[in-house]
Amino acid sequence: TNIKSELLKRMSAGIEQPVSGQQLADEYGLSRTAIWKYVKELEQEGYEIGTVRKKGYYLIDSPDSLMPAAVQQYLQSQNYGQKIEYIEACPSTQLVAHVEAQNGAPDGMVIIANEQTAGKGRLSRPWSSAAGKGIWMSVITRPKLTPQQAPQMTLVAAVAIVRAIEDLTNLTPTIKWPNDILVKGRKLTGILTELQADPDRVKAIILGIGMNVNQELEDFPEEIRDIATSLYIEQGQSVKRAELTAKVLNHLETYVSLYVEKGFAPIKLLWESYADSIGKRVKISTLQDSYEATARGISEDGRLEVVLDDGTVRGIYSADIHIL
Ligand code: BTX
């Protein structure tokens, strides 16, 4: 995989700078035939590869693949994404990630599926995860945090995802507390944060990230067509999922370390700069009740602060927010 992602990275320089199989073989202590086999594997995965006689290989076209090498060629991270388990289809990557985490998966290991047949949101709501159209992944993280600090990881992830979208598109997404990333008020991405912990120590935080990338409206189930959107719908142009995945992982690693080292304050600032509900009238629905208030900001520990009509301030740990 390592060599495949290196090959992809180098071959993307195009026909002007073909990659010499001999040189790569020498660098990695392999035979030229071994390199050639990797090239054949990539062709089988849908890559179109050209050869210049006596010079080497170059990339003509790449599929919209999420296979490990496709993602890893764009990584700049230490740990995040350095180990990827790719699954063609599964019920939910969260379930796989929980088992992997229990079995000792390293910090930053990623489970990616091309399709989820039972993708889930919060409170066991369904998450539509069409084949080949989005990024459905679970990132296993092992930050040094207390269980009380875990919910803020949702906000850390939201900032990382917005930055990645800004890197690759001209869109300006907003964040709706706690876990939605919206474009023009429609849901582009959802985050599901799950925890494995002792009473005083986080063992693993599993960040489930669902991003709508190349769907057309008809790819969504009818009941969410007026609330959901994708990057393709918003900008009329498709995005290579592998590159976006890598950008999310690069930013995520940076912001998680920032959070662990400097606390929530720097994340809070970034988060608030993307937030769309601050200062607005909102309806708050929890499992117990539902009421209206004005959103004021987020607290030092990531709760949403709202001002009730009688002037009292309340900090909310978890709820669904509807902007009125
Ligand atoms: P949520 O509870 O905030 O959002 C779920 C709600 O969003 C659904 O009830 C539905 O109305 C709407 N919805 C469903 N599918 C989509 C979609 N594709 N786009 C926009 N809106 C939708 C959000 O929960 C958290 C989602 C996390 C998904 C990831 S994917 C990888 C990982 N595996 C897994 O099973 N879940 C996570």
TrEMBL record:
Biotin binds at Q116, K187. This is Bifunctional ligase/repressor BirA. CDD domains: BPL. HAMAP family: Bifunct_BirA. It comes from Sporosarcina aquimarina. The keyword Lipoprotein does not apply. Keywords: ATP-binding, Biotin, DNA-binding, Ligase, Nucleotide-binding, Repressor, Transcription, Transcription regulation. It comes from the Bacteria. The lineage of its organism: Bacteria, Bacillati, Bacillota, Bacilli, Bacillales. SUPFAM superfamilies: C-terminal domain of transcriptional repressors (SSF50037), Class II aaRS and biotin synthetases (SSF55681), Winged helix' DNA-binding domain (SSF46785). Residues 69-260 form the BPL/LPL catalytic domain.
